[in-house]
Amino acid sequence: MKKFIIPLLTVVMVVSIILTGCAPALPPEEPELPPEEPELPPTALSKPGEWAGQTEFGKLVFTVAPDSTGISKISLHFEGEFKCGGSSVSDGQATVEKLDDVWPITNGQFSAEFSLLKGLWNVVIEGEFDQTGTQASGTWEISSGEGTTCQEGTWEASAP
């Protein structure tokens, strides 16, 4: 019996060694990826109604349409004298209203361009609403009809 066990153990050991060497390799460990940036929630719809913000020339007032898809009216309230090109206004107000359309709000941003004083002044108002849709800020520029920038600045407004 001893003669039979020793060769059997030898065969078992040799087979074990061979099988261990032939075992399939484990796939390499995947490198740990850095954590993903948290995805920001989409910008909330801006609150409809009349928004107002202070500017260097006085006050900017704009109306967000009831469905929050655009700006339907913009008013510039000039406090003191404002000069641009050969024209000036003192303590005045200018309002531009879109009756059949709006200046669209896309991804929380808008840009409105229009003329005042029969084309003597060109106005550009750009803005962005915050993630909550209750705060907005942006830039404004008033240039002469010839294209010379008269004044520019920034504005901030809160929801009505």
Q: Number of helical runs?
A: 1
Please write the CATH class name of the domain at 49-158: Mainly Beta
Helical residue percent band: 10-25%
What's the main sheet like?
9 strands, antiparallel
User: In angstroms, what is the radius of gyration?
Assistant: 35 Å
- Shape by Cα distribution: elongated
Low-pLDDT windows of residues: none
Characterize the structure shown.
The protein has one helix at about 1-20, and strands at about 50-55, 60-65, 70-80, 80-85, 85-90, 95, 105, 110-115, 120-130, 135-145, 150-160. It has about 160 residues and is mainly beta. The chain has a domain at about 50-160: Lipocalin, CATH 2.40.128. The strands form two sheets. Strands 1, 2, 3, 6, 7, 8, 9, 10 and 11 form a nine-stranded antiparallel beta sheet that branches. A hairpin with a 4-residue loop joins strand 8 and strand 9. The relative contact order is 0.17.
Quick structural gist:
With about 160 residues, this protein is mainly β.
Please supply descriptive tags for the structure shown above:
nine-stranded antiparallel β-sheet, 1 helix, 160 residues, Lipocalin, 46% strand, two-stranded antiparallel sheet, mainly beta
Can you lay out the helices and strands and say which pair or pack?
Layout: H1 2-21, E1 49-54, E2 58-64, E3 70-78, E4 81-84, E5 87-90, E6 93-97, E7 103-104, E8 109-116, E9 121-129, E10 135-144, E11 149-158
Antiparallel strand pairs: 1-2, 1-11, 2-3, 3-6, 3-7, 4-5, 8-9, 9-10, 10-11
